[in-house]
Structure formats: C-alpha cells, structure tokens
Write a structure and sequence with these properties.
35% helix, 14 helices, heme binding, glycoprotein, 4% strand, mainly alpha, two-stranded antiparallel sheet, Peroxidase, domain 1
Length: 363
C-alpha cells in the first residue's frame, strides 16, 4: 500500500509538473507559448519579418542592428544617470534631441523602419529596438540566436550627446569611451559585424550579408589606391581610408585592427566562425541590457520568440580575388592562418545584391 501511495503521489506530481509547462494558444491562432505574455512578441516578430525585413538579410537588418547599438551606448558609468539610460529606447522617445549627435547621422531612417509598430503593439521603445535587432539578424547566414528579455521602462531623459564615438576619434579615446559604458576593446569588434554602411551605400567587405570573418581579413589588407570609391559613395562626415575596390573602410576600424590593445585579437578572429558567433552573442547580450541593471531582475525571458537563424555559409575565409598574403598589414606577431584566394570578386562594386531575386525598396 505504501508503494502504491508513493507512486500515486509521484504520478500526480508529474502531471502537475507537465501542466505547468503546457503551452498556451495565442490569440492569432498560429503560435503557442509557454507564457501567454509572449504572444504579443510572436505577433511583433511576424510583423517585423513581413513589413520591415521581408524575411531577408538586407539594409533593414543592418539598420536595426546599428540602432540597437546606438541606443544602448548612450550610457556612462562615470557620469551616472544624467548621461542616459542605455538600452532604454531614448533614441526614439527623444529622437529630436539625440539626432543632434553627429554620430547618429542617418539613424532616423532606422528609427522610421520600426517606430510605427509602437502604435500597433503595446511594447516600449527600448524593447522594440532590441527585439527588432534580435529578430532581424536571424535572416543573415551565420548569426547566433540571441536571447531576448522584455521589460525596459520608457526612457525619462535623452542620452547625453557626445557619448557615441565617431570614426575620426583617437583609437584610445574610443576604447576609453567603450570601457566607460562597460565594454572591453575586444567587445568593441562586434559593433560592425554586419559590414555594410547604409549611410553611404557601400559594403565594408566582399560578403556584407553573411556573418563571417571576411571583414576581419579585409581590414588588414592594404588599400587599393588605383580604385578609389566611386563618386558620391563616400560621405565626408563618415571618414574612411582607402580600401579594396568598391569597399568602404572606417578610420576607426583601420586603427582598431592595428592598435597594440586589439591587433592580436583582431587577427585571431580571421577564419574563426565559432569564435565570431560566441563573441557576438555575448557582446550583443550585454548591449541589450546596458544601463538596465535596476530592471533586469524583473524582466521576462521571451527568447522562445526569436526565430531560428539561417545556418552559416559553409565557406572558409578567403583572400578576395586579386589579393593575397603580400597585401597583409600585420602588426601582431602571432601566426596568421593559411587562406586560399577567392575565385570570384565577391560583392559587386556598383550593383547591390538582391537576395532571392526580390529586392525591397531602399528606405
């Protein structure tokens, strides 16, 4: 009898435990969730994919990722609360003020991509910005799946102007600014790991719509002075150095890749897909909650809503066609990987790629 009673209690406990994890049907009749509160984010993800990203990796994804960083980095441990609340959506709530910062040039386009969704979904600007970035990058081959925590309050003040570094800043000043926001020099690398500058319509590397280490290789190559960017491609307010034909290189990235504080790690990432994925995942997880320490404990984990990302492209990093080891400018003495040369030039210099043959309209 005792054993029967014990097994009976265990069975009841097992049924109760299973009931606790029973998924609930969402009002849209499509999704189910472990928490009914997740349902709004399932609907928001669907809307982002259909109305903003169109289920492809294109400019809208680049802009969403840049917006998530620009909003979050407006934070300072040194200056405290008066500097801004970090990843709190203030770049939308106080758009007029924050767009006065030269570093936010062109960010209004990214804001307009998603701001209209605040009228349709009961989410805060801070949650929308970080969620849009996490959803958008799942369309790009190779990106890791990010967690998503919701519960950022509406910003009460704009971020202090001048907290976002610009390309012509001294590299050590850039590192110091990032450290003041809670990031190490190596974590700074991930800021441009969707290598396309939508402000000037020029790619940073030959595979701008794929998450790979081509960018880290190509920044280390000597520039092609015989093929400068075409007229109209470079904005004077976004300083660059000469890069490969048809590419764009920020002065800050050139300096970071050659700084004694960062050059060896930069070089280490060449042809390291796993390292790239892990590093980006961890850095973006920090970006998403910068300045939100007081609220993290009360945030709800809605990571189940983030779509499964497109798998990585099964391709090693290669020297772009017409280049090779002789063009490398290495300032770190660690061994450099042996890489093959590409058989094609990669990203064209005049025509943007059209994934799946269906280009969304430029915005």
């Amino acid at each position: 009898m005792g054993y029967k009673l014990l097994f009976g209690l265990l069975a009841v406990a097992g049924m109760a435990s299973a009931a606790n994890y029973k998924r609930v049907a969402c009002p849209d009749g499509i999704h189910t969730a472990t928490n009914a509160a997740c349902c709004i984010f399932f609907s928001l993800a669907d809307e982002l994919q259909s109305s903003v990203f169109q289920n492809i990796c294109f400019e809208q994804v680049h802009r969403a990722l840049r917006l998530s960083f620009q909003d979050a980095i407006g934070f300072s441990f040194m200056d405290g609360p008066k500097a801004g609340g970090g990843a709190d959506g203030s770049i939308i709530t106080f758009e007029t003020t924050e767009l006065k910062d030269p570093a936010n040039m062109g960010i209004d386009i990214a804001i307009n991509d998603t701001k209209f969704l605040l009228q349709k979904f009961n989410v805060t600007p801070g949650d929308l910005i970080q969620f849009a970035a996490a959803v958008g990058i799942t369309n790009c081959p190779g990106y890791p799946r990010q967690e998503f925590l919701a519960g950022r309050p509406v910003a009460v003040a704009p971020a202090q102007l001048g907290l976002i570094s610009i390309p012509q800043d001294n590299v050590d000043d850039i590192f110091d600014r990032m450290e003041d926001a809670g990031f190490s020099p190596t974590e700074l690398y991930w800021a441009h790991e969707l290598p396309f500058d939508n402000r000037v319509q020029v790619p940073f590397d030959t595979t701008p719509f794929v998450f790979d280490s081509q960018y880290y290789l190509e920044v280390l190559l000597m520039g092609d002075e015989t093929h400068p960017p075409a007229q109209g491609q470079v904005d004077a307010q976004v300083p660059s150095v000469l890069a490969l034909s048809g590419e764009f290189r920020l002065q800050s990235d050139f300096a970071i890749s050659r700084s004694p504080r960062s050059n060896c790690f930069w070089q280490f990432l060449v042809n390291d897909q796993f390292g790239l994925q892990q590093g980006f995942h961890d850095a973006m997880a920090k970006v998403a909650i910068v300045g939100q320490d007081a609220y993290v404990s009360g945030m709800i984990d809605y990571s189940e809503v983030i779509p499964m990302p497109v798998p990585p492209v099964n391709k090693s990093t290669t020297f772009p066609a017409g280049t090779g080891p002789n063009l490398l400018e290495l300032s770190c003495n660690s061994p450099f990987p042996s890489l093959a040369a590409a058989s094609d030039p990669g990203f064209p210099t005049t025509i943007l790629p059209c994934p799946q043959g269906d280009c969304p309209a430029m915005r």
